[in-house]
Amino acid sequence: LVRSPGVYFDSSIDKASDRDVYSAKLIPGRGAWLEFDADKKDTIGVRVDRKRRQYVTTFLRALGIAETDEEILALFDNSESIINTLEKDPTDNRDEALLDLYRKLRPGELTTVESARGLINTLFFNTKRYDLTRVGRYKLDTKFGRDVDLSKYDREVDGLLSTDDMLDAIRYLVNLHARTDGYRTDDIDHFGNRRIRTVGELIQNQIRVGLTRLERVVRERMTTQDPEVITPQSLINIRPVVASIKEFFGTSQLSQFMDQPNPLAGLTHRRRLSALGPGGLSRERAGFEVRDVHSSHYGRMCPIETPEGPNIGLIGSLATYAKVNRFGFIETPYRKVENGKVTKKVEYLTASEEENYVIAQANAEVSEDGSYVNPRVLVRRRGGEVDYVKSTDVDYMDVSPKQIVSVATSLIPFLEHDDANRALMGSNMQRQAVPLLHAEAPLVGTGVEQRAAYDSGEMVIAEADGEVTEVSGIEVVVKESSNNRKRSYPLKKFVRSNQGTNLNQKAVVIEGDKVKAGDVLADGPSTDLGELALGKNLLVAFMPWEGHNFEDAIILNENLVKNDVLTSIHIEEHEIEARDTKLGAEEITRDIPNVAEEVLRDLDDEGIIRIGAEVGPGDYLVGKVTPKGETELTPEERLLRAIFGEKAREVRDTSLRVPHGESGKVIDVKVFRREEGDDLPPGMNQLVRVYVAQQRKISEGDKLAGRHGNKGVISRILPQEDMPFMEDGTPVDIVLSPLGVPSRMNLGQVLETHLGWAAAQGWQPYKGDGVAAAGVEPWSRVATPVFDGAREDEISEVLKAALPNRDGNQLVNEEGKATLYNGRTGHPFDNPITVGYIYILKLLHLVDDKIHARSTGPYSMITQQPLGGKAQFGGQRFGEMEVWALEAYGAAYALQELLTIKSDDVAGRVKVYEAIVKGENIPEPGIPESFKVLVKEMQSLCLNVEMLSAGEEIELADLEEDVFRTQEALGIDISRPERAT
Length: 981
Prior knowledge:
single chain; alpha+beta; 6 domains; seven-stranded mixed sheet
């Protein structure tokens, strides 16, 4: 999203005089900016390309638009500000004006009339340097009320600024300054002034850069080479063009790694709008105005879906029905209203066009013939103002209530009952849902699920009518009716997504089925019979449970673990490469020094793991050895070499092993070799990728969430018999804290609970408020669209009409509450409890990826303290405040241990390791390395530091030899992480 080329009028307050000061900017697609402004002395000035300000009359003379004072005054109807400017203007004719202009644009250079004229022509009248673009011409013509006809657009003429453009801009500014009626400043945050730079345009700009570099190289070579032997091959080097395209895809802020934990995430990422990136804003400089919701976002950009962090408001999502027009402006559809009647005609309007019309809401009541039921209709006008008008005054009507929100937000049922902050979290968390083993569509949906799944591109869709002739795990074959040809649709099996989730497709048709073009042949990840299915419908009770669901914690039924209800498959990719090193080539092999055969049992002859092997932390996936530098041989080795004549293999084990804390089953291995013609980077001979899949059952510490921003972490998984149960013995699946609802103001979850229960039970036909509703079978899926969903009284009616259970009882009353019984005592709880079905998602924040433990491992080079973080196999930081806590308790020995042998007492920690191995007492801690670093830093400040103990100076001996001796004696290096596993 960038500011569109065109002309912009702005006002700011002058601090000294407290008056409005107006300015105008002519912004091209490419080239020098031209800024006009009126100052507090009532003169009109101009800045060319953000250089020094000069009088606009000088500029007009330099361009040759008008030379004498009379001509200039005639152009502006003897305006007062122009008279004031002429009084201050030191120039009288064109040549003086040109020289004055050149001095300010190129200070310090020799000025001549010719060079000044050349500079102005280059800046504004050269199509290579200056281009307004079609959009700029369109914006200028609409701003100044000219006829817009871009069919005859000629870049050589319309792409450059004309005399009229400049004069119109100055006239508009003069009128603004004089506060003439009908002249307004522009709002830069309005979507009529911000346009989308699409991928094509971004790549076009990048190629232009590449071609400009290419042109420079060609020109240089043409001057240096002999014209008679010149060939196109010797002149043209395409590297700059290729490099600029690669640079765009490799390093541009807008070229991103696709977010695809589930189909919705991919769909949303492709519909993302960003105000960041080249030509856009930066996080630090963006103020509140840019980030805020604007009335022109209506139907174009979602007011809800945006990140929570520093990018809030700068990154958005395209609204459901919005599209981008040829100029890059976002349009939204409206139904045409003629003489107070809504027609079937749909028109797309940009934000600027919409300003001129009166538009009604989508849920305004309309009769069969299209006329409005009520005499006055709620509408919005220019700038988002709301009003009631006669139906005949309405010009357009929204096409749907959900046109203002994005796809992810339109998947939230009862969105209208949720606070915007929580709805934002709900929209964002749906994108983090993990595809489960068995997908299940929501009982309470919004009706968008099918379309979202279809458009995500993760399902297999029939391309033509026909009959299914063959179905297997890996493909579906359809015989097409039009040409009797068989078309095969291959299915993805256990493919790893960018986020490590499992993309798997399975057929939903059977042999002999007749299919039409557009029908679903196979479900993808997180889809259920063609509907988006990100989570599971779980029976929930809102109640406290022995304090274990304090602060959004969640209690879960163990049944969900046993029955794999919330189980997902995750696939990790491990990669190793064999390169050429200075000491020789690395080799992928099974022959690894000092490794037992038992450890290598699953490796094949080449040293690569077999598919289907179960692996755990530290297991070998691919064996690799790297040549070591030549070392001094001992006399014994020299003797052996003299006898046997062979050079002992000097190699290091640099094999690929399963990282700490990971395990699973090997499902695929890919091997790329240079000798087989695979395209590998220079210096790389072989590349092996191993894919390890693991099943992750739900466990304590995993994060779950509903669709209303109601997220929490599982604190306890209880046996089924301990869970609260209903009157007929059904235990609930999940217990949520009731305190998570009132303060968060996301009441949508409560309404979803009630409607979920009614949908699961089914209901009889009923009559309520003059409305007759048909009956519904148990476990039917219901849709309650955004802003047009079920009302509270309707939910009450369906709860009343809910079908009884097998014993003929109504377990839940019309308020949606039931009597629950304590699973441990069997006694009923004191009060009725809200029970029903909520759609719960398992999010990508899994405890298995976060939990981490370390005994010994790598240490920082300078401070010798353990590194931090799971990725570095680091330790837990014991910081300042934690030290204070132990000091407060007087835990001196625990504290000394933590600050020395458990951290950076280099010699001490090795001795302690030795003592533990030998079963001896722990030795006294020594001096920590951080103290030595402090001493060295003080010495670097030329301070003479003496260490005194009992009045005597002590030497800080370098204990490194001692350390290495101890390590060699033990045959262990405690800084190598794999030794610790």
